[in-house]
Design goal:
single chain, 7 helices, globular, five-stranded mixed sheet, two-stranded parallel ribbon, alpha/beta, 7 strands, about 230 residues
Length: about 230
């Protein structure tokens, strides 16, 4: 979900790996300011729909992968259907409202969510999977039960982000997606990675499922998606 800074490396590496079907969700157009971090697009693509330029690039990487475009925004009316159509979701969104929507849709649909986020010089990654191979892990709301007030935290477009940072976090997300698809390794379920680019430090914290979580807890209060 998203073909920007995080979605660029995710989509390219999954296509290169030969993932059979990739569903792509994106509504935006390419802007010159995107190009320092959204390298699935190039200078000739400025003004084009990101979906179109991304599809051209992915087909050049691997013409055998089935690409299923979903142009437009993900919202409460279509999120669950989009999520249920695929085996897993990679969250490449850049705002809190969509992040919570994607999380809730994944929990309700029982799909793992390879999560990543970036802000200035810091990145985060985890796998939110409330039901995967018998493992019941936490979801995004176990970490942050409610979104912050609108306008409190600036977006990447407003605050800026180190151009290479989405590439690193997106590569981690692609790695986790491949592990989940193939069943190898130890996914980042219940583990939350924090990367500090300025100090070149990567640390991990344990994240447990919150039994009081409003969407994946023992007595959930969120049973339908809300816009």
């Amino acid at each position: 979900i998203g073909l920007g800074g995080l979605g660029s490396p995710v989509a390219m590496y999954l296509a290169a790996a030969g993932v059979g079907t990739l569903g792509l969700v994106e509504f935006d157009t390419v802007d010159l300011s995107n190009l320092q971090r959204q390298f699935i697009h190039g200078t000739p693509d400025v003004g084009r729909a990101k979906m179109d330029s991304a599809i051209d690039r992915l087909r050049a990487i691997n013409p055998h992968v089935i690409l299923e475009p979903h142009p437009g925004s993900i919202d409460a009316s279509n999120a669950r259907g989009l999520v249920e159509a695929y085996d897993l979701v990679v969250d490449g969104t850049d705002n809190f409202s969509t992040r919570y929507l994607v999380n809730d849709a994944c929990v309700l649909a029982g799909r793992p969510n390879a999560y990543g986020s970036v802000f200035r010089f810091e990145g985060q990654a985890s796998v939110f999977a409330t039901s995967h191979d018998g493992v019941r892990g936490p979801c995004y709301r176990c970490l942050h039960p409610e979104p912050p007030p609108a306008g409190l935290i600036p977006s990447c477009a407003e605050a800026g982000v180190l151009g290479v940072l989405p590439g690193l976090i997106g590569t981690i997300q692609a790695t986790e997606a491949i592990k989940l698809i193939t069943g190898i390794g130890e996914p980042l379920i219940g583990r939350f990675l924090i990367y500090d680019a300025l100090r070149m430090r990567l640390r991990e914290i344990t994240l447990k499922r919150d039994p009081e979580c409003p969407v994946c807890g023992d007595a959930p209060t969120i049973r339908e998606l809300a816009s």
